Amino acid sequence: MAIAQGSFGQDNNPFSSGIGTQSDTTNQQSPNLPQQASPPQIGPRVLTQPDQTNQRNGLQQQDNGTNSQTERNGRQPVQNPLEPVQLTPFQRLVAASVGRVLPVFGATLFTNVPSTFAPVDRIPVTPDYVIGPGDELLIRIWGQVSLDGHFTVDRSGDVYIPQVGTVRVAGVPFAKLTDFLRSRVSRTFRNFDLNVNIGQLRSIQIFIVGQAKRPGSYTVSSLSTLVNALFASGGPAPSGSLRNIEVKRGKETVTTFDFYDLLLKGDKSKDVPLLSGDVIYIPPAGPMAAVAGSVHEPALYELEPGATVNDVIALAGGLSTLAQDKQVRVERILHHDSRAVLDIKLDATGLATPLSDGDIIEVSPIVDRFKDAVTLRGNVADPRRFTWFPGMRIRDLIPNKEALLTRDYWQQRNQLGLPVLDSTPDVRRYAPDAPVAQLNGRGLGPIKSPLLLNSGNTPDSDTNVYGNNVNSGSVNSGLMDGTDPNTQTGLNSSNNPSSNSSQQNSLAAGDTNSDGSTRASRNSSVSSQDSRIDNSATSSTSSNSASGTSVSASVTGAARRFPIKNAVVLSAPEVDWAYAVVQRLSKDDLTTQLLPFNLGRLVMSGDETQNLELEAGDVVTIFSKADIKVPQAQQTKYVRLEGEFTAAGTYSVAPGETLRQLVARAGGLSSSAYLYGSQFSRESTKVLQQQRLNDYAADLDRRIKLAEANSANNALNPQDQIANISALQNARTVAIRLRQLVASGRIVLNMSPDGKTVADVPDLQLEDGDTFVVPQTPVSVDVFGSVYTQNSFLYNSRKRAGDYIRQAGGGTRTADTGRSYIVRADGSIISRQFSSALFTGNFDATHLYPGDAIIIPEQVDKRPLLRNLVDIATIIGQFGLGIAAINVLQ
Fold this sequence. Notes:
Elements: E1 45-48, E2 60-62, E3 83-86, H1 89-98, E4 136-143, E5 147-152, E6 158-161, E7 165-168, H2 174-185, E8 192-198, E9 203-210, E10 216-221, H3 226-233, E11 245-249, E12 252-257, H4 259-265, E13 279-282, E14 288-293, E15 299-302, H5 309-315, E16 327-334, E17 338-345, H6 348-351, E18 360-363, E19 373-378, E20 384-387, H7 407-415, E21 480-481, H8 497-503, H9 526-530, H10 557-561, E22 575-585, E23 592-597, H11 599-603, E24 619-624, E25 637-643, E26 649-653, H12 659-665, E27 679-681, H13 683-714, H14 718-738, E28 742-743, E29 746-747, E30 771-774, E31 780-785, E32 791-794, H15 801-807, E33 821-823, E34 829-831, E35 853-856, H16 865-889
Helix pairs in contact: 13-14
């Protein structure tokens, strides 16, 4: 019988245990062939590793006298994927009772054979190994005679040694083999030495029968033992026993092996070497019981005769830490016709209770309840559980005000004291191909901009640039922060004139956009550039990070070159002194009661009426002003004043204090303050604006989908259909960009252009997070859009809008002058459509103020003259044909 010895040295199968391979060739699949899916299983299923029916550790199985050897030359069989395994009836019963599928104890050991089982032909031969036919002997002799050869024991048990003759070695233990051969060689030679070793081992044929996963005939190594053969053959089937595995040799039972001894105790003393012709018999599993709940290893266990509750709990590893040690619940099948539930106490009598086949033992965990404890949580320094004692009150949990300062507060406060690692200004030069900032009339967020050029055309560092140029009149309506360079108010930059013109507000002269529009000059005045610098530091606070705050022209060059690093903000939410609550579970009807109390009166005033007595199980919750919105009068308000103030900075606002009162408290305005160009932003307004912006984007999406559904029916000719498809594509692009816009939260204050004093500041109630920015008086007026020269011009009180338009060269051929508009420095808009009526005056005669901007949009949907003539001629021709047809009919 041929043995696949050549595969031993090349077997890299991680599931190899070094014994052999089963010879079921029907399960061997090529690595290039897909494996067929298993049929679906009905009922509860568990996933387990499939039987290793291919090559495993050199083991061979014989069917009908044929052999199947392992693949050679390093080729390994394909391992089957995980497949569902049908549960046993008892497993189904247990799963229905305890709510989870329990494994059969020890079965998982055979689902994925560990790679630590090395091939047995590579391990040392034990001294008691008996030489037999098929073994290879490595004999070396030196001295008077020299010999080095490999000799195989023949079927008769003999080995032929040259110049010595035939020597019978069968039946000789390996420990005595060297002396035995020395004595035989010494009959012919003298003065020599001898060494004997064993090369390839003989193979033996064994049989695995009974309740095995893969019963059959196997050819294994002569060093194989019972345990090796079980691992390599897949072990017992789900219905097989792990506790009574027998090895039969002829009519005699050599050993009865209990696998539980190996699994639980590491006892392998009853494992025996196998001989050729041995039969491994796996009987059906005996009585079984399930152990579930709070034990170390819940599973199904095979019982020994007379097993008790204590024995099975010991098999499961004992009770876990969370197990109730008073009693266990046992479900039992009575007389094969009904089921019963028994409560067995875990005392000496209960533990000695004998178990029956099919019993289910469930150990309940303890109830996760703290006894005699009170919980303090919320805005406190040390939220935890406290030991309750009779007469315990709230002051025992909160001894002083410092106990209400959270750990987050101190962590944030400690961060303020850390050193700044790098304060070097950013002097990187502006890359010509870098994206250019967009002043889109809605306030830009912090972006890298090439506009901050000084008189020497040297670029500044990365700064926060905003689209509201209150100093030179850049476009800003105070609604949103357009972070996309091609987006304005939800209209496509290639189809919307206001979008194109506002976008050109930040583009440099001599360059062109993707749509061919001319870029604005990069060499605008320094005062116009300074007004685009964000000095508000609102990005340092979570409430004003993208508010689009306009900035003043009084910002110094140093502030323009260095990033903003310092801001006065709350380190953590403040305590709500007006309300705290005790949550209590009623012992009468188990309802939850809330007992509110005034925390301020308790802690700061020592009011004993608020010092409630606590009971075991109470939960005391301390709220912050971020948890529950409190009245404005109780809120801590920080407001930023920036720009042309005597003392610009962040101020804490008293209850009821207005913007005018705060400006007066800050020392008033400077002599160069320009109130008309100021900007006031509010966080609550920003939230509302963002919500409306999102609603508009959602409505636009719905209208686009409706237009897509109706576009095919509304098209009169292929040209119209192509135009509709292009328009819908542009609309989808606009909807996507519209969702990227961020509201600024600006409120237009409608102040007079001549306002100079604190009395001109609106008497507006303040909220937390408000920002008021007052620039210095600008010296220019901007003209942008479809004009020959987009630039900023020095302000002249005698000039009107038409004068600045003519100074910019007037509108180009593609200018849509009928939709021109003026963006005031305060954020309001004046359009030509509503200012050229009979009683409202002429748009070109409109008086401008410093910081205003004139926008001349570009026509987007301008039909060529030839196309119009063709359409008119077609209509007239069809009309004439219709008249001729009527005359013919008459």
